């Protein structure tokens, strides 16, 4: 059934169709409608789930962790400062190998106080052991929630499904809402190997001596390394059933491109418009939208940019004292493989400043006009 | 692709107007993208809503700077802000007003339509006399003047979207649609 819905509600429908059993959340702009709709669904029994109201995001994640340990399929959503407040519990969820799925609306960190989009909130959590999916449309948001549960539960690793504040969260688009029966067929019920139950007692999260801790972390990484293959496999399975492929990256006209833009989030769709315009004016441009940031799709990036003459990575985030974080990863992917390929790092759109097709044209023009980057970071549209 | 900007004041249902229009368009197989001003809305303050319409998927997620048409839900905004900012040549300015279109002093490169949505809303008892809800009437006029959808698709979208007085809202949309037919 096709419906015009906002990005926030795409998260809610995804969580509903996945038959989430426990939802614990605390409202924050611009995430509020996600949990508003889910609480209504729980109240009118559209969704047979327990909705737990909490006093903070830290408690929201703690409640999700408790529910997940007990074997419930668990969902939450937050944004920005709320995600930051969860930080300690994010480690607990991944270290506890709990497949919680969370929506995060990319909102800039304060101060300066902002409700507009950039990626520093979610990317500040990149080392917490969560998978991260960056979405570009409301359809992708809904579909990814369902897929994320499947991948998370198979690997026992939590997932964040991430969307831009306003540009997706409050934007209405036509979304094909899949049939519940088909989603049930795609996503079987959550059956953890062990769970917290008096029938079969186990201890969880106890003191772990140096004798064992190292191996737990090794196993987490090894399972994270299985995610790229599993995301592709479950993405193809999704395509067979629903007609839409869900992969690690979305490459557009990259095969013969001289310059490849590397993008993410909604800017990764806007970039396509710029690529089309450039192609019309004779510039062979391509767009590589990175959808999954953790685990990072190293092999895909290497393969797709292989024949390009220039790569321009556009980050809507910054690691202060270093670079944009997608830029770091792309360089890291190419290290030892193709050290001669010039990779330019651009930062644009922080704090919700708009990224338009002409932003990408400006970026491409800069990259095409220089043999190699002359600056560590090339700032686009900053007032100096 | 058609891009439209709505101007209203917080509390008038401007964002809902763009949402209803998006629904009606989607019913006829169009791709649509509708979004409110990216910010904090306050009752009475100028607000914006935007809509993109195409017959293929819409990838541009940036804001609309050069709309094809503008819709002015609150006529007092004409004196308060430049409602024609970025408006493309030949674009329609559709205003909720009891004035004759010729009374507005817009540059000649624009087309102007005036529809008395306030009167239609009051007549159909939508909102209060002091704060009538004009959004369904204005969308009725927009759909007709810009030939965007069939009236039936709009009426169906209103039926599905508006939980309070759906029939009265449908009547308002239809009246505005018919009135607008005499101007387009």
Structure description:
Chain A has helices at 7-17, 32-43, 57-69, 80-85, 87-95, 120-123, 138-155, 180-186, 213-242, 267-280, 298-305, 325-334, 357-369; strands at 2-6, 22-25, 50-53, 74-79, 101-106, 131-134, 159-164, 172-176, 249-252, 259-263, 285-290, 292-294, 310-315, 343-347, 378-379. Chain A has 384 residues and is α/β, with parallel strands linked by helices. Chain A folds into 2 domains: 2-242, 3-Layer(aba) Sandwich (Rossmann fold), CATH 3.40.50; 250-379, 3-Layer(aba) Sandwich (Rossmann fold), CATH 3.40.50.920. In chain A, the strands form 3 sheets. In chain A, strands 3-2-4-5-7-6-12 form a 7-stranded mixed β-sheet, sandwiched between helices. In chain A, strands 9-11-10-13-14-15 form a 6-stranded mixed β-sheet, with helices on both faces. In chain A, strands 1-8 form a two-stranded antiparallel sheet. The model of chain A has no long low-confidence stretch (mean pLDDT 97). By secondary structure, chain B is of the alpha/beta class. Chain B is built from 6 helices and 6 strands; from the N terminus they run βαβββαββαααα. The mean pLDDT of chain B is 94. Chain B has a 6-stranded mixed β-sheet, with helices on one face. In chain B, β4 (69-72), α2 and β5 (92-96) form a beta-alpha-beta unit. Chain B has helices at residues 14-27, 77-80, 117-123, 135-145, 151-161, 166-181; strands at residues 2-9, 31-36, 46-54, 69-72, 92-96, 111-115. β8 (172-176) of chain A pairs antiparallel with β2 (31-36) of chain B, so a sheet runs across the interface.
